[in-house]
Write a structure and sequence with these properties.
The structure holds two protein chains of two kinds.
Chain A: E1 2-11, E2 14-24, E3 29-33, H1 40-47, E4 55-60, E5 63-64, H2 69-72, E6 75-78, H3 90-100, H4 106-116, H5 132-144, E7 150-154, H6 162-177, E8 181-185, H7 189-195, E9 198-203, E10 206-212, H8 218-232
Parallel strand pairs in A: 3-8, 3-9, 6-7, 7-8
Antiparallel strand pairs in A: 1-2, 1-4, 4-5, 9-10
Chain B: H1 16-34, H2 36-55, H3 63-91, H4 95-100, H5 106-135, H6 144-169, H7 175-202, H8 207-235
Helix pairs in contact in B: 1-5, 2-3, 2-5, 3-5, 3-6, 3-7, 5-6, 5-8, 6-7, 6-8, 7-8
């Protein structure tokens, strides 16, 4: 379903993503860990079609990223930044995203996405007046409103309270069960491993570990990850 | 797990023009809520007209000779205020990533932005043009429709170039400075064509006399609307 083959991206001579390959089937969730500057965000931006790869290729649901709109239609992205317009309300932001993706009955879809993130009661509030956590919930609603087949999440739990985190986990599980593939970048191993079917550690642009979740010993994994993070951190 | 069990919705992304309309409507909604850029540009334009009026020695230069230059210089600089914010609103919280991630042709983003900017710039003209006519007591009369046509042609050219350069400049540290520096040289043919053709109309001459300058404006619009639309996707590559 999602196939990355030897993906490379270089910035000013430095390889931010270096020869990364993996495959995600429908319902798979790859939890991606790594220290700051490991290349995780760059990898997500490549898969979202926001950056062109310098080498290799990626197929999303059989469509090559180079296909442009056809590939981007399959992808949802939750980024560090909210990607929202502060002046518009939560509903308007999510509805705009739905219309740009050609979702039938965009208004109803927007409300459903906001309800999934338990923020529908603030639907008509301008986003700039919402707290950071509520903005994050609206941002996630914006990313899932079109039912993406690949959902890319970059630190999605940042700023969320307990209810928000629970809503996000429930939404991610629901997306996965509907057949979407997930790629979740996080520094929190417990959160990441909770829903993962695969786990990988990225360092200096490369996957230095990548295996199925069921093969992992969570406590040993944690110490190994800390060693890697300490090396680069 | 097999891909066959995927039961996700099938969406039909909007056409290029449909997406452009969505982008334009969103931009206009944002501007309508805040009105900061529009009000600033209108106040700037009216202050400009007033300052030029009081600096004018009516015994040395006739109103008909001065007014076209005043109108188009003020229009150009007031328009730049609007163009500046066009992509600025996309950078806050990286909303631009949401646009670029949408399954629409990148050209539609440019067309949508340009449409919203055109409404903005025409709005400035709707206020500035009557102000110049009133301040300089111009005998426009029947030429008002032709003058409105010139204004629209000039606005299209200004917006075509300005929207592209706004996208290019917005990611730089000196965006406020870079946009005028990039745009103003390209605005020269627009200001020349608009000023020369409107001067003839303001002097009560027939439209036929303004035609050679109008042709330049039309040619500029065709060339730059096409070139800027095609060039726009490359300005967004990181």
């Amino acid at each position: 379903m999602v196939q990355a083959e030897r993906l490379v991206r270089t910035f000013s001579g430095r390889r931010a993503v270096d020869d990364v390959s993996f495959t995600l089937h429908a319902g798979d969730c790859l939890a991606l860990f790594g220290p700051n500057g490991a290349g995780k965000t760059t990898l997500l931006r490549l898969l979202a079609g926001l950056l062109a790869p310098g080498g290799g290729r990626a197929l999303v649901h059989g469509v090559a990223l180079e296909a442009g709109p056809a590939a981007r239609a399959q992808v949802g992205l939750v980024s560090h930044a909210s990607m929202l317009y502060g002046t518009l309300t939560a509903r308007e932001n999510v509805e705009f995203a739905a219309r740009m993706h050609g979702v039938p009955d965009a208004a109803a879809a927007a409300l459903r996405a906001l309800a999934a993130m338990r923020v529908e009661d603030r639907a008509d509030t301008p986003v700039r007046t919402l707290s950071r956590g509520l903005q994050q919930r609206v941002s996630i609603a914006r990313a899932i409103v079109h039912g993406p087949r690949l959902l890319l999440c970059d630190e999605p739990y940042t700023g969320l309270d307990e209810a928000g985190a629970a809503a996000l986990t429930a939404t991610l599980v629901e997306r996965r069960e509907a057949g979407a593939a997930l790629l979740v970048v996080t520094h929190n191993l417990a959160e990441g491993l909770e829903i993962a079917t695969q786990a990988a550690i990225m360092r200096r642009g490369r996957f230095v570990r990548h295996e199925a979740r069921e093969l992992l010993d969570a406590s040993a994994y944690q110490s190994q990850y800390r060693e890697l993070a300490a090396v680069d951190g | 797990m097999a891909d066959a069990r995927v039961s996700l919705p099938v969406n039909v992304p909007p056409s290029t023009l449909g997406a452009a309309w969505l982008v334009a409507r969103k931009d206009l909604a944002i501007e309508f809520r805040t009105r900061t850029a529009f009000l600033s540009a209108v106040v700037f334009a009216l202050l400009g007209v007033t300052i030029f009026y009081f600096a004018w020695d009516s015994t040395a230069v006739s109103a008909v000779d001065l007014a076209p230059g005043v109108l188009w210089v003020i229009f150009t600089f007031a328009g730049l205020l609007g163009l500046q914010r066009s992509f600025g609103s996309e950078l806050a919280d990286r909303a631009i990533d949401g646009l670029l991630g949408a399954p629409v042709a990148r050209e539609s983003i440019y067309v949508g932005k340009a449409l919203a900017n055109l409404v903005f710039v025409v709005g400035i003209l709707v206020v500035t043009l009557p102000a110049v006519v009133l301040f300089y007591n111009l005998p426009i009369g029947a030429g008002i429709l032709a003058l409105a046509g010139i204004a629209l042609l000039a606005a299209i050219g200004l917006v075509a170039v300005g929207t592209l350069f706004s996208a290019m400049a917005v990611n730089t540290r000196m965006a406020e400075l870079l946009l005028p520096m990039l745009s103003l040289p390209f605005f020269v043919p627009i200001v020349m064509g608009a000023a020369q053709s409107s001067a003839r109309l303001m002097a009560g001459r027939p439209v036929a006399e303004a035609w050679p300058w109008l042709r330049i404006l039309i040619a500029f619009d065709i060339v730059f609307v096409t070139a800027c639309t095609l060039a726009f996707p490359f300005t967004l590559d990181e």
